[in-house]
Batch of 4 targets.
Target 1
Amino acid sequence: MKFSEKLKKLRKDNNLTQDQLASKLYVTRTAISKWETDKGYPNIESLKLIANTFHMTLDQLISDEDIENKRLLEEQVARKCYYVALASFIVTLIFALVSYLTDIPYFLIPSFIGVISYAIFAFLSTPKYKRARAKNDNHTKYIITKVIAFAILLLAIITTAWQVF
């Protein structure tokens, strides 16, 4: 894939107009248009900004490696993390139920571990490029979401620990 095609695909995949990308790179819309139509090529400083904007290395940006292949691999890993998160959730529920039915608090320890593994793998179940895009699109919303998730996890840990001790 040529650089011009890659730049256009990256811009469109991130829902950016040429004007928006130009303002992020401190260039004109005309420059973006020239780069996307293969009538010009950015300087090294602009290449660095483009790579940072799309969360990739310069090698990834200017290499012939297809962007789509990388995203497909990230999505496969994310899908596996989703299944592990789901399994962790089920294990957590099973051990919590067993602890409740048998009145043996030590069954809450695997439940506690399940809560932690669920939180980790649930976070990883979103591909990296989507997490980066969400973080950049609305920074406040991203922070609030993470604080709420952390509060829920902390509440689950405190509740589990309270029942064990």
Target 2
Amino acid sequence: MDTAYNILYKLVALTIRIICRLNGGLDIIGKENIPSNEGAIIASNHISYLDPPIIGAVLPRRGVFMARKGLFDIPLLGWIIKRAAFPVDREKTGPSTIKAAIKKLKNGELVIMFPEGKRSETGQLLEAKRGIGMVVGLSKAPIVPTVVVGTDKALPVNVKWLKRARIKVVFGKPIYYPSAIDGKSQRGHLLHKHISNTIMTAIGELKNNYSDKSC
């Protein structure tokens, strides 16, 4: 990463945090659960287009996203995304995407993933895609289950301008590979699906504990 981008990244992250605090408040819980010097997956629910920039802005160290490949073709936005993310086909996660994620994890980076594969327009958790299970199964990287609350109120579906809302980002205790497989002897697709479901269960528990009622 070049120096100019490092400065831009920090300025953008700071600006996002300030806007969120002024626009209703921003609570960040559990940052100590994020490994400080090893590769890890930040696995979050996805309820608003605000989720990626807000998660990126509150992480204690820089993360890299798996982003929809069409975003890379947008002028200016594409330039920024290329430096903060790598492309993924939401319809079919190819081997090159999996390899890219594993390489970054092996290099000690934080990889932000949305197991559901797309934004939930109802706020309810969707079924996890198998891709995150594949990445975990092949990399053995720890997973930090994460839940974002309130972004769907700050920027609801089909709304272009921010609404006042308190936002909360909660990072749960890391899940390590042995506990993710839970003694299962399956291989391939079944094992990857089991890992994905285990992650979504952890996200669901966080969501229940830190729902809008607790904001």
Target 3
Amino acid sequence: MQNADIAATFERLANLLELKGELSFKTQAYRKAARVIKQLPADIEQLAHERKLKDIPGVGEAIANKITRLVTTGKMDLYERVRAEFPQGTIDLMDVPGIGPKLAALLYNELHITNVDELKHAIGDGRVASLPRVGTKMVQSILRSIENNR
């Protein structure tokens, strides 16, 4: 696995934990690990094989173990467990630029939106704009992101 792949997994894990309502220090630890890994000039797999992961700033024992497992098996148990708690579509919503964990949770909890097509329909009929803290500019930005990603 490449550094960017591992960083993306940690970022998705942080988003899912935030969506789940976990404590912010956990999500921040995974976000920090994602940032550091993404910017790391060294190959993360090599560091894992050399058992030097804890030399990376922001990587302690628990995160080092998760990286090692990800490098050796291609999976991270915590990520798989948390991901299984949400419909795949909800996870896909967070891939749309402008939709973070909080907005994805709001869309899911209030409007029961579980995929991009449902989101586009809810934007069209005005339901998304009626949500608290969601204005016209945000809705237009999300719609542009959806169109650009298609």
Target 4
Amino acid sequence: MTVLAAILLLVIIMDPIGNVPVFLSILKNIPIERRRKVLIRELLIALIVLLFFMFIGRYILQLLQIAESSLGIAGGIMLFIIAINMIFPGNKNMFAHNEKMEPLVVPLAVPMIAGPSAIAAVILMMAQEPDRWKEWVFALIIAWLIAGVTLLSSETLGRKLGERALLAIERLMGILLMLVSVDLIIDGIKQTFNI
């Protein structure tokens, strides 16, 4: 996997465009002057979580005796489910929270930015090619910056693009994510059966 492919994969998994309406909904009761600080804090927490799993994740896999192929298949299945939800969104909000309280860690940092699929992706990248750790950290930081800038601009994007355009972009990202998820599943099966 190239660094550019890793960046693109992580951006698609983090789905900042698709998260814009959800972030706006979650932050609606927070004073405007406080929203940016909350977003920056949640973005930093998400980055720390992803970096933690990038460097510690493969040791957790070894401790639990989980094969990389299993992680690839599981990650592919998670991505597939997320892609289905992106293409065919329901009315149910998976990330319900207490609107009277300011969100902390959940649901903005985890699982919206640093969700199970993003965690699985960074663990898999590092487990497959640990000697390229500098490239993976670079890819993660660039993807995180793209997601961060997008989410910090969420109010402007929400106004300028409108709900229909955001939904169309999210569905397109969902289709791309579905292709990536199928590829991860196939690679995992190939590794399992040495094909």
